[in-house]
Amino acid sequence: SSAKDMSIPCTKIVCPPCLNERKDVISTESEVIPKPSHKLALIVPVRDRLEELLEFIPYMKKFLGNQGVTSEILVINQGDGYRFNRASLINSGFRLMKQHCPDCDYFAMHDVDLLPLNPELKYSYPEHGPLHLAAPHLHPKYHYDKFVGGILLLTISQFELVNGMSNRYWGWGLEDDEFYVRLKQANITIQRPGNLTTDSTNTFKHMHNARVRKRDYRYCYDQKKASLRRDYDSGVNNVNFKVVGQYSVTSNGESATLFNIHLECDRTFSPWCLCPEDIPKPKNVTSKSGKVKQPHKIS
């Protein structure tokens, strides 16, 4: 069955490109500042979150600029009609980053509704292991030890070593728990900030409105059982997607690149990309003889 198109209308997001792009070398009369040795890509998985993006983009550009971090923001919008798949969007964003930002040597998988408030949170190159900025003792909502969601910084090699994230998590939750297992099995140590002057009440601004942005907690078919097992079959190497649009989104003079993508679903691998109630029911068709033809079953 075909999925309903839920793309963000182009007219909403096409904006003039930012005029003040960062140059490789910034020259003044007295000094020449060399290009930084590392470049960060923020990979932001979303579905129709324009309002949050217009706040996120200038805020993060300023926050990172204050730290001297050179960055690009890549927004990966899921425009198909399948259930939301955060991990596949991150996998897709990683692949697109390697094409469109070849000088980016590390990235952050970054929720759009989580803004850092404490400048002590450093978005620096995670040379000693993945850096989980939204750590359990700092995140406003999730405090369990194995939590690695929200904001996680990795190098390209760290992400590729575990084949990225699983593609079978449609709907909300558990994809980051499975990613935690991947990191642990690869003996990769997760780093977390310490000795901050803030805690879970004031380190981040959490912009999620549960009444407006209802999360899809449903389980269908054998999804729950499969979601609790380590996935050895899928990852960044076989995420299936196509780019249906690429746009510049500008807010307060700061720009990001938005990729509107359609994920593809192998329903033999993860039939829960659509629950039964999501699948359009075929209408009965009347033949020339007047008899009603029964619709074909959707497998």
From TrEMBL:
GO terms for cellular component: Golgi apparatus; membrane. It comes from the Eukaryota. Residues 35-123 form the Galactosyltransferase N-terminal domain. It is a single-pass type II membrane protein. It is found in: Membrane. One of its GO terms (molecular function) is xylosylprotein 4-beta-galactosyltransferase activity. Residues 130-206 form the Galactosyltransferase C-terminal domain. The keyword Transit peptide does not apply. Signal peptide: none annotated. Keywords: Glycoprotein, Glycosyltransferase, Membrane, Signal-anchor, Transferase, Transmembrane, Transmembrane helix. The keyword Cytoplasm does not apply. It holds the Pfam family Glyco_transf_7N. One of its GO terms (biological process) is proteoglycan biosynthetic process. InterPro entries: Galactosyl_T (IPR003859), Galactosyl_T_C (IPR027791), Galactosyl_T_N (IPR027995), Nucleotide-diphossugar_trans (IPR029044). Belongs to the glycosyltransferase 7 family. This is Uncharacterized protein. It comes from Artemia franciscana (Brine shrimp).
